[in-house]
Fold each of these.
Amino acid sequence: MKEVSQLVLARKPKQCNFIEHRDTKVVYRKYASLYFVAGIGLDDNELLTLEIIHRYVEVLDRFFGNVCELDLIFQFQKAYYILDEMIMAGELQEASKKTVLRVIAQQDETEAVENSERGWGDLK
């Protein structure tokens, strides 16, 4: 992880977003101050992976309202929920932003109902 981070951070903005590292291709994309990095197999499609990263960031933006580092730090479980709704077993399962956001909203409602039934109030 440390090696990959150093490799990605050392790259210039005009360089491509793919790096071959050992037996893996590293695909990354920078959005403002956030880096999103994915490791894929040597035979996997880099452009598709870039598109999946972009779609993920778009959904995060809609959910958090312009996602930032603090959103991901303090609500990392929501970011994982979103990722889990989009990707299963390393493959894109749901490409529709509306569908993913609807399912996340349903999860939030269910969680709020369960918390109120337990007397925990509005925990997020």
Amino acid sequence: MSLVKILNVNILNPTANFLAPYKFEITFECIEQLKDDLEFKLIYVWSAKSSTLDQELDSLLVGPVPMGINKFVFEADAPDVSKIPKEDLLDVSVILLTCSYMEKMFTRIGYYVNNAYTDGEMQAAPPATPQLDKVQRSILADKPRVTQFAINWDDPTQEEQPPVESVEAMMAGESDGELDNDDEDDELDEDEELEEDDVDGDEDLDETEAQDEAELDDEDLEEADQMQDDDDEMAVEDGPTSMTHSAMPHAVGMEIE
């Protein structure tokens, strides 16, 4: 069980100039006294090729952490554009907010960032040298990707579990921009399997009922044939009167004179 849970992240300036600082208001809950500080980081990801190209914008130690709900504002400078190729300054990138305890990350929240000119002419024909003072940064604040890592809070040196989703997957566009709902997806998959089992079960029941009906029909036909044979024997012995009575079961609704 995680001793710290991020309750809310409010991005104070989701739309701003590319060079403006990032401002995140973070609310979290601590359910037990911690021995060490929490560390928060803001990381800018502009390439999916390698994590070595990521830029750590800033890091912040928070502690001692009291039990209960806590809130603070995390502010970090914009990325160093001299370390980003000109052709990668615009379009889509990712900003990551991570939270760690004793150097073990237990929560990572990712947001898509769209960098584009606000001027229509510059959008149609971008200048060879980017004019960042005219580039607007838009963070998709309502579509975070939250990844939880299981750590041992008593001994965080133990190896953590792998993340549910990689940053490379986000950059590659494989993410749908929604919160991770693996448990709900598993439940949906289980429900679908149950529904399929129910359908298969119904088909088996229908097949069994059809077989039973066929067997009953065969039994009825055999019984009717036996009755017919008995009636024929009676007709031979008793004469025309018995034949008239033997025809009655096969003439339902007919009027006998």
Amino acid sequence: MLIPAASKLREVNSFKCNSGITSPPRGQPIAGQFMGFGLISTGGGYQENCDPSRAYHSITDVLKSNGKSDLVDYMKQFWVSNDESAEKFWEHEWSTHGTCMSTIAPACLASDAPQGLDAAYYFQRAVDTFKSLPTYTSLSAAGITPSTSKTYTLSELTHAGYIPAFDCKAKAISTVTYYYNLQGTVIDGTMMPFDAPKAGSCPSSGIKYPPKSDDKKSDGSMSTKASGVA
């Protein structure tokens, strides 16, 4: 394994991980669609576009050349956009957010590291984090399940554990954002969850949790939508 520079091993950064909130896809044990994974500043905003020289233009090729074909297959199903190709979406996420991850900057990797290894580390960590999100299972355990008619209060949604931010469109949950401190590196550091520093846009009551529908996109990937949500 390539080891980052020692000066980066104790770095603590804050991340937020966005997940589209829906019931699980057919045959899949996890919920929803992955939206993004970015580094945030102490003021709460994203750090963005930190190194244009590393803006790769074929994330699929970059990941496959670094032994991540299975990761690409997973991303095609769960990390897609409703308004652009998956490839364009991934390129945006990497150039906008991934290039700001200091512990996978080229200076922190071995001198003979293959091109794109930094992006491979970023996307692997992002997907691993998404897979760990407890949204659907934790809500189900509290008796909160997708419904076309029932509504919930915000306090019911934030019933246990660390509290994410719930965002709504037309009072229907559209996104859940989880916050973490990363102790160590993007490669193998520890993700430590903490309560969202600010509430999302969902109201205090009358919140809808609509069932999910799966639509096949033109490139063969799945677009996850919730009824009543654009």
Amino acid sequence: ALAVRVQVTWDIGYLNISRDGLSTWRAIGANGQLPIPPIYVTQGDVLELTAINHLDMPVTLHAHGLFQRNSTYYDGPALITECGIPPGSQFTYIIETRDQSGTYWVHSHYRMEGIDGLRTALVILDQDMSLLDEYDEDVLLTLEDWGQEPNNDLMERLQVTPF
């Protein structure tokens, strides 16, 4: 099969949420959604993930578990491999999938943004679909753990410097 360019745009912004029905706080989503829908590509495809930052702080993204051959400059850790996308700016990550298949995740690597919602599953379907008749269905299950306050607030209250 021929590789294709899969274009995904995340309009990253704050959302007011209530996960427990008791308290409401500011979380981070993409395109007005939380959780952010999974990204599906086929092995060999090139994922172009454009992140448009509407937050009041920088954003970095990391494709967790993927080989970063020839792309370590945007592996995600803020101020280590990249400076981050400034508020009001955008950046397109080019993610090659030729060498891997499986389930991974994309998440922010700036402060506590990933924990506050800026994350999703990245599913890279194997080009060899010979195992399709070996099972009935695929189920993608992601879990969240929410506290009673946003994680950046918690870190400041505990006087912990987030990474």
